[in-house]
Amino acid sequence: MMKYRVSTSRSSNISSLLHGRFTIKVVLLDNTEVSFKFEERKKILGSELFEKVCKNTKIEEPWRKYFGLQYVNKNDGKRDWLKKNQVVNQCPSSVPGQFQFAVKVFPDTPSDEDQVVQKLLVFQVKEYLLLGNLRTTIQEQALLDSYFAQGTLGNFNQKKHFNGYLEKFLGSFFCNSFSEMSKNLYEQKVQTLHKSHQGMAHCEAFKAFLSLSASIFGYGTFVYKRAVDMNGKEFILTVSFKGIQIFLPNIYGEPEELVQEFPWDTVVSFVSDSSKFLFSVCSAHKSLQTHSFRFKGQYGYLQANRVFTDAVYHRDLILALKSIQEREPRSKSLKSENSARLERLLPGRGIDKMILMPTKKTEV
After folding, report:
1. How far apart are CA 220 and CA 217, in angstroms?
2. How far apart, in whole angstroms, are the C-alpha atoms of residue 271 and residue 305?
3. Does the pLDDT at position 351 exceed 70?
4. 8 Å CB contact between 2 and 100
5. Which domain holds residue 99?
6. Which of 279, 301, 318 is the last residue of a domain?
7. How far is the C-alpha of 121 from the C-alpha of 127, rounded, in Å?
8. Category of 234 on φ-ψ map: left (φ > 0), alpha (ψ -120 to 50) or beta
């Protein structure tokens, strides 16, 4: 499970400051830690730190859009995203100089992504399962854990994988109800499934893990509770690649009944004002509707700002990707039309194999 190493960070950072250097530690998705040293007086921006982390983890530019850096806000103990233009050593962190590398936007089809990205997504989903932020049936949980074991440990080996190897490796198991199955029985079930994956490559196991994860309710969703509308009725807001969703909470305070869903291409604008989050959507009749919610509690303004931040990240990325996808078929169509036109003008010339040189302009 990913964690913040609170006990050592403060002392190490103080020691670094005494020597005129400031150390920043980042916990990665596989729970390893990397450190970066900066001059004490230098203002380090979030974009600079993020660039260093991506280079360290070998994440290429096209895939960086899915990730970000988080810190624990000292006011309410919840995670906030480090913004690109934010000064790193001035953010209100409960553990100065320590950050978490995390998934900022989950792709809707994670199994289609680059293998490096897939592996990082697997670790993030695994953490959500362990924390109970993503819930599923015990059967699906066991299958996911077996794919995780295959992708990380490889084929089951009776000489190496003794009883208890999964418990030590996977950490504390999370199930919806332990009354349905004991931990020992659960581990045996995962082990049996792990054996059945004999011969499956690491990348295939991670791909299978993500394909199943994407089908689980709540995958890729950021949840914001204790939001009330103008009539004082309580709702739960969620932000994901699908858009903004409004749920009624169940007796446990978890999302249950979907009330409304607004895809990103219908969301015109959103605003965070104190503890309020407002967003406007364009209906099918082209009329503009504004929805307003207020977050309860002393730190409601922080929650409102978090919804706003996540909404900005998701909408900008999803609409940009959608625009690229819409242009690609059009580009291919135009290429085919141009090839057909040239073939009619110059029959038998093998247009598909010709290299068409651009016309050189002559200046007069």
Report:
1. 9
2. 9
3. no
4. yes
5. 22-103
6. 318
7. 10
8. beta
Whether the model pTM is above 0.90:
no
**Is 339 within the bounds of a domain?**
no
Asked if residue 62 lies in contact with residue 78, where contact means CB atoms within 8 angstroms, the answer is no
CB 98 within 8 A of CB 9: yes
Nearest-angstrom CA–CA distance, 108 and 110: 6
Q: Are residues 146 and 188 in the same domain?
A: yes
**Residue at 279 is within a domain:** yes
If one counts the domains in the chain, the total is 3
Question: Do residues 238 and 222 lie in contact, with contact meaning Cβ atoms separated by under 8 Å?
Answer: yes
What does the pLDDT look like over 303-333, one tens digit per residue?
999 999 999 999 999 888 887 777 665 555 5
AA identity, residue 38: F
pLDDT, tens digit (0-9, with 9 covering 90-100), for 207-222: 999 999 999 999 999 9
Rounded (5°) CA angle 279-280-281: 125
| Contact between residue 142 and residue 173 where contact means Cβ atoms under 8 Å apart | no
Structure tokens at 352: 């598909």
